[in-house]
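Subject line: Sequence and fold of a protein, written as structure tokens
Enclosed: The protein record, placed directly beneath this head.
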Amino acid sequence: MSELTKRILFAVPAAILFLYITWVGSFYFTGLIVLVALFIQREISLISESADFKPDTFFPYTIGLWILLSPLLSHALILGIAIFLIFMAVQVFKTGDRALKELISTTFCGIYAPLGLLTLLMLRNIGSTETGFLLTITLLLMVWGNDVFAYFGGKAFGKNKLAPTVSPNKTWEGFFFGILGALVGLLLVIYLTPIKFPVSVVAVAPAALLVSIFGPIGDLTESRLKRAANMKDASNILPGHGGFFDRFDALILAAPAFYCYLYLLKIIGHVSF
């Protein structure tokens, strides 16, 4: 069985399940995203350790859970400050290069994936249940469309390397095909779903470009980390796909970009949700 076949056989049912839980929403979706974030944090910890930047054993997950659950917590800011104070108090008693490396890697591992995925939770909670679901699947289809079009477009026409020292297989041709794929994903949601889209096509179209920029940046960020650690995949937990970090790397930065763009539209009065 080819690698592509394995990827497809796993991806299709996994995507259907993910979309179903996204539709159900509530604490089911929150629980899923928190679980995904914890898996990604574990994989980033392993990558960092392989690159001789071993993070703290507990604080990345403490910080991550605080970030992800902060909208649900009473006195979230004070709790976050308390975690910060305890973290710094523990760190001050560690000495040498190892202490500095642990401080850097713990901070990155604690913040990177949880902060990105927090915006996915915030996106799902925008407006009504239908609006939040529609905007969330819009993001997902833009990211997936970008990934698929970039892969096949780059394979068929790719000649000019996008980031040869970080990810040699990525090309500028694939990047521009990816923009087209994100736009296709956006239009599929707007015109094929029975729920009225809450933003005009003209107003939301630039989001496809933003997702097509920050999604690949997320992908390249992971590639840079794995290259530093001399690793091919973040893990092998997902058949044909590596780890959760490998599957959600683009979404970690695409979600904040999309959410911030929608927030900007709300500020200037183009949407009312």
